[in-house]
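Colleagues,

For the teaching module next term, I've prepared a clean inverse folding example: a structure given as tokens, and then the sequence designed for it. I'd like students to try predicting residues themselves before seeing the answer, so please don't circulate the second half yet.
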């Protein structure tokens, strides 16, 4: 297990880029509404009361276009930034106070990532640890110092595994099974560190919990995606959808990581897409036609992004 962690950068980049697509569509619709409001005002100018109403609609439409234009600009900037992070491109120029530090931390093939890049990645992975292990931490109620140590060990391991997966995706020289073997080695090293700070019972609880790590992380990520890209879903149905999709993603990618398929961005995205379509089939028995259409639209948008990212 651990594919959600290993390809996390691509997951985030997809979400951010799809946000741009969604906002662009909303902006187009808002502009159409604005044009209609302009037309209505012109037509109704001889009628004072109606003209006042049309003016209100026009003002509202103009405000919506302005807000969506701003939102779209922000989303585009965030999508570009996250795509850079996901591809592990060199970071943006550091602020003046970090210039000397950054100059001393240039990455070389021998030295690996710079200290600044390492800290950036571990910060991101720390957020993922909080998503994936919230239930574990809640259940175990570890003392603060132990909690912090465990979280730090997990974030370091997540970061190392993500870098390794990104390198394999770029090189396309390993099968998914070979990448998983490296993952298993990293997890054994992580377990050794955790054994130094956890009791035997707590370590056993971690062993049991790790099998659901991807499930929990996918649920959190998908919930955010659905909230953004399928806002018409009811809260109850969104909860159902995220659980089913997380189950199918964990199962599909679990099978993928044991396969001889070349480990690449395309193969990973293809397996994610297959999992989402499996979920759609299951959801036909759960959702009514109107609610199902929201989920179907969400999957179509994600598929469009996978196509756009194809190598």
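(Answer key — instructors only)
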């Amino acid at each position: 297990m651990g594919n959600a962690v290993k390809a996390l950068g691509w997951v985030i980049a997809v979400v951010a880029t799809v946000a741009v697509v969604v906002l662009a569509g909303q902006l187009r619709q808002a502009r159409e509404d604005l044009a209609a409001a302009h037309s209505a005002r012109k037509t109704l100018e001889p009628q004072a009361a109606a003209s006042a109403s049309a003016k209100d609609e026009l003002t509202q439409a103009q405000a919506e276009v302005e807000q969506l234009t701003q939102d779209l600009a922000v989303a585009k900037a965030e999508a570009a930034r996250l795509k850079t992070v996901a591809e592990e491109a060199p970071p943006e120029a550091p602020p003046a106070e970090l210039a000397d530090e950054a100059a001393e931390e240039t990455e070389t093939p021998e030295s690996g990532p710079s200290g600044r890049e390492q800290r950036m990645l571990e910060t991101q992975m720390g957020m993922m640890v909080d998503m994936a292990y919230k239930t574990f931490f809640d259940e175990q109620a570890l003392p603060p110092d132990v909690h912090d140590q465990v979280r730090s060990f997990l974030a370091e391991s997540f970061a190392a595994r993500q870098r390794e997966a990104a390198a394999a995706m770029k090189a396309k020289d390993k099968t998914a099974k070979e990448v998983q073997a490296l993952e298993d080695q990293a997890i054994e090293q992580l377990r050794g560190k955790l054994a130094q700070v956890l009791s035997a019972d707590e370590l056993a609880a971690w062993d049991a919990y790790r099998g659901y790590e991807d499930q929990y992380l996918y649920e959190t990520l998908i919930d955010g995606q659905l909230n953004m890209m399928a806002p018409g879903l009811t809260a109850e149905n969104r909860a159902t959808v995220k659980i089913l999709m997380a189950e199918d993603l964990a199962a599909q990618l679990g099978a993928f990581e044991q396969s001889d398929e070349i480990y690449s961005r395309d193969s990973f995205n293809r397996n994610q897409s297959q999992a989402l379509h499996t979920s759609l089939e299951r959801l036909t028995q759960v959702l009514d036609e109107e609610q199902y259409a929201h989920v179907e639209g969400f999957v179509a948008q994600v598929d469009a992004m996978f196509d756009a990212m194809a190598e």
